[in-house]
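Bug report (template v2)

What were you trying to do?
Predict the complex of my protein with NAY.

What happened?
Run completed; filing so the output is reviewed.

Input:
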Amino acid sequence: MKKLYSALMTAFNEDGSVNEAGIREMVRYNIDVNKVDGLYVGGSTGENFNMSHDQKVQVFKTAIDEAGDAIDLIAQVGSLDLNESKELAKLVTDLGYPKISAVTPFYYNYTFEQIKNYYNEIVKDVDNKLVIYSIPVLTGVSLSIDQFAELFENPKIIGIKYTNADFFLLERVRNRFPDKLILSGFDEMLLPALALNVDGAIGSTYNLNAKRAKAEMVAFDEGDIDKARELQKVSNDAISALIANDIYPSLKLVFEEMGVHAGVTKAPMSKPTPEMIAGAKKIYNDYFK
Ligand code: NAY
């Protein structure tokens, strides 16, 4: 069966400090109610790139302290400071995270040799496995199939979190690397990704929508494509509404409607406006009640 992971959000207080109790609530909800197979900690949805080093450490410690070994945990340790990535890779490995992940280094238009060196350095001193986090829409970094192959020469690099709408490349990657872990990253494209035989999916909206996404995965497995398509349609109506209402703060606002204290986003992300709060109530009523 394919695996479903929520991209864990970070609950922040109004002053931008980490709200540990909120993180614990979201971890619990994902385990107890959503029954996800795993959590992706410290990713885009987790606002990792808004956080100080100490906050990242706080999030990694809190999430695994709450989750234990109940589900799979992937810690995203990628950073523009390679030394920080290496330090975080050691920390999360010592904490017991069974997998790490790292976003492709961005901003400086690194060459592939530099990117390859970054990944090999991150895993060099840790006894852990790494999933490449490829998200060209946010990083501007697109890796080719041959570049993925070169990264996979390192046996500690075991897969890709593939957050990319390029389905031609996804099909090529799946077929060339049948034994690698390929996790799809765009929730609105879950069904086409399932059709290309990904191993599972990681996403922000599964925090709210895991049951519907799991039902879609089951329908797909059973060959009931009409049902899978209908479930994806409802999910996409919800995802469109979330995006139109500013997705990151809205995911937290809808969580609040569900009784889960998700805190607020951290600046420069938006604070909720009255319109956003009204929008989130409507999204909750329409799709998640
Ligand atoms: C993460 O938090 O690192 C992710 O899982 C990224 C995946 C998400 N992408 C972004 C840019 O947030 O879940 C998706 C995305 O929010 C969803 O598909 C709506 O577009």
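What did the reviewer find?
The mean pLDDT is 98. The first strand starts at residue 3 and ends at 7.
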